[in-house]
Amino acid sequence: MNDLVTASSQAIQLLIYGDPEIWEIILISFSVSLRAIVITAPVAIIIAFCLSYYNFIGRRILIALFNTAMSIPAVVVGLTLYLLLSRAGPMGDLKLLFTQEAMIMGQILLCFPLLVALSHASLQAADRRAWETAITLGAHPFKAFFTVLKEAQFGLIAAIIAGFGRIIAEVGSSMMVGGNILNYTRNIPTAIALETSKGTYAQGIALGFVLLLLALTLNLFVSYIQGKGEVLS
Amino acid sequence: MTRKFDPPHQMKATEVNVNLEKVSLSINKQIILDNLSLQLSSLHSILMTGQNGSGKSTFLKIISGLLKPDTFRLSKSDTNKSWSASRKYLRKHFCYLHQTPYLFSGSVHDNIAYGLKQQGLSRYEIDHKVNEALKIIALQNLSKRDSRTLSGGERQRVAIARSWVTSPSFILLDEPFTNMDKHSRHNCYDVINQLIEYNTGIILTSHDPQNGELSFNRHLHLFQGTINEKDL
Lengths: 233, 232
Fold this sequence. Notes:
Chain A is mainly α. Chain A contains 11 helices and no strands. Chain A is globular and about 65 Å long. In chain B, helix 3 runs parallel beside helix 5. Chain B is globular, with a radius of gyration of 18 Å.
């Protein structure tokens, strides 16, 4: 218990006094995950929209696949990507293994099905009359699409935040395809795993605090957004 | 691209005639609309009656280009036109209003301006038209009000004004008086009668025959997938 208290106070000191190594790790974490979510969100939302508003063969199977892929373990994504990107793998020539790009690819694969499934649920729940009203008032389908997104914005923002929450905290994929290289591919979760295995708990706890703080901030933001939606409706 | 602005009070729309041929739709092998043919003029104000589930809303959604029928032709000479070409024409001339109208998030002004923005009008023209429309529906004081805080009757009037400012040849009103009190109903009658005065074609669906408040000049009855002309 004393060890935990000591390590925690050391962790707070590390954060307060701006340990450069810790802040570099935090920066890498945010940079990688933000790039992954920015690339994934538009594609996922367009696919979710097509699944919600167009009837085509295989639609139900696709929805079931995306729902299933939501719970795919990060380590399985990491392993698959590792085999693809390793020198002997089919994408070995790209030399992406142990780079931030590989980490981004892993995180995209992780959050893509989650974003599609949650955005689809949000668009399905949105009022279909919004689309019909926009069209009958003369909007081009492209503009009507953005009108529908605006009407479903609360659910879509919550979906994006949930996707970001998943990838910022995942360790399996980042560890396997990023390689946990200091100042390059070491992010918060891989650093926590490393520091814990070394027995240097202070840095691990400090990074854990950052993740907890992030989770709290995201949840408060989602609550605020959802609350705003409720009040307005 | 901007259009020349004509104040609504000076607007008397020119007549548009639409000939619908072979309108059919089946859902799960049940015939909803059975090879209907109908001539429509924007000078007509039509009351369409029919029982629940007789296909009134379905018919309105088809002729407003929101729902694809099994078969459809715009006129006898229109043998080669695809549904997408017909749909484009229908969407240009017909504006459909849901039974419970959907108002977008934002103010009453934003809602009425929506269709005008799609037409690429300038901000000045949009504001002018929106203000004219607000006068007609007698809701000038609610211009800035959040649309989702309006009462049922106010929502319906805003939705009618929002359709009307886009100058469609026909406005299709799908049972607009459902769940409306007497006062709101009378306000809506006034607005709809004004549309008729401006030569906007009206098709209004209802379970019941008209009560004399609206100046219809045609009565259609939909029964078992077919349309019959009836006396008013």
